[in-house]
Each structure stands twice: as structure tokens, then as C-alpha cells.
Amino acid sequence: MKLKRKIKNDAWKICFLAPAVILFIYIVGEPFFRGFLYSFTDWNGVTKTYNIVNFDNYIKFFKDPSVLLPIKNSIYYTAITVVVNNLVGLGLALLLNKTYKGTKIYRTVFFIPFVISFVLAGFLWSYMYSDVIGSIFNISSLLGNPKTVIPAIAGISLWRDAGYVMVIYLAALQAIPKDYYEAAKMDGASVLGTFRYVTLPNLIPAFSINIALFLGWGIKVFDYVMAATGGGPGKSSETLALYVYKYTFNYNKVGYGQTVAIYMMILVFVLAGSAARFFRKREVEM
User: Fold this and answer.
1) What is the domain extent for residue 63?
2) Fewer beta carbons within 10 angstroms: which end of the chain, N or C?
3) pTM
4) Rounded to whole angstroms, what are the CA distances from 200 to 33, 48, 145, 176, 181?
5) Are 137 and 3 part of one and the same domain?
């Protein structure tokens, strides 16, 4: 009877999970598998016929000098967003981890930009940089200068995503037992010492989430760049994701575009996975 009941319960669980699994396979799994197969071809995305080129596209990637700038831009953007967004988000969380009047309102205000779409944020800040900030300070748009375009795009991410980072850190801060702070106070710990030895160690799980997420989001950034600059001026803001888009849709080289996308996916997994593993080890040690 117990075995029969267990089989029945498992069957119900499978029935509830099946629609989500089927939808995931149809929307994510099948296109990914098809794209992986296309990376071994010279398909142009238009005709029904194509040739199998084996690993030629994968070898071409390492011989293609035009991919170096998108890689550099993606890493540069990622480095800025990982550092700045986490610092600002943590600072906001520390400031708003209080119970004074208006705290909830401020939290909501800082989080609201995160519900805006990437594309809308890109278009909005394209206007802000050119027509508002440029007019106020009598300067040309930061998006039009090759030296400032990547930091300017990172600024869009800061405005939109810092509120999300703040929420993750707030949840971690509020989960820290008050007893820890009382014990530190009784031991005569300073404010800086309390932050270093009590707050920071307990924020390790939040660091793991935020840093891993922004490493992944940074490497595959597309929407902000496409909406704000289209990769310009010139190709000074072209990222790996935009590079994949252009080869796949503009240049009709789907096979090579899919190959670059697979390399980008590997890079995301390596960076985000390494960061998550690094912080998990520190979390266990604490």
C-alpha cells in the first residue's frame, strides 16, 4: 500500500510539472539544440540548404580579429556593472535597513526602475544623455564618445538595476540575528569592526547571488546597447551579444553567429559559476 501511495503521489507531481517542462523544452531546449547544430554549418538563415563545415566556425573564431573588440567591450562593461552596481546597491541597503519614517517609500522608489524594460531604459537614457544632460552641462552626449560610451551604458544599468541589488542585500541584512550585533557591542567592537566581522560575513550569500548574476548579465548584455547606441559610435560599444545578432541577422551567417553565441554561453557559465563557487566556499568557512 505504501508503494502504491508513493507511486500515486509521484505521478501527481509529474503531472503538475509536465506542462512547465514541456514549455521549457519547446521554448529553450529545442532552439538551443537547433542552434548548436547550426554552428557546424554555413547556413545563411534564408535558404533551406546548407553545408556541414564541421569545426570550421569554431576555429574561425580564434582567427577572427573583429571579435576582439566586442570581447573587450563586454568584459569592460561587466567589470563596471559588477563593481559599481554592487557597491551602490549595498550602500542603499545599509542606508535603508532602518525603520525611520519614509523607509518603505524610498525602497520602492529605488526599486521601481527595475520593472522598466531594458529597451525602454535604453531609449530613455539615450534621450537623457543627448537632450537633457548634454543641454544642462553644455557637453556632447556621452553615448557619442568612444571613450565614454561603455561607462555611459553601464550608467543605464546602474539606474535600472541597483534597486534590485539593494533588495537582495536588504533581505540578507534583515536575516542577520540581532544577537550578533548585541554581542559585538558588548565586546566593545567599533562600527567598522562590527561591519567587518558581523555584517560582511553574513552577506556572503547575497554577494554570491548579485555578483554571479551581474557577471552573466554583463557578458550577454544586448538590450541597453541595441536601444541606446546600436553598437556605435563606429563599433566602440559593440558587445558579444550584438556581434552575434549582426552575424546572424545582418550578415546572414547563422552558423558562425551561433558559434560565437556558444562561446559566449561558455564564458558566462565559467565566470558566473566560478564566482558562485568562490563565495559558497567562503560561506561554509564562516
Assistant:
1) 56-285
2) N
3) 0.91
4) 41, 56, 38, 10, 12
5) no
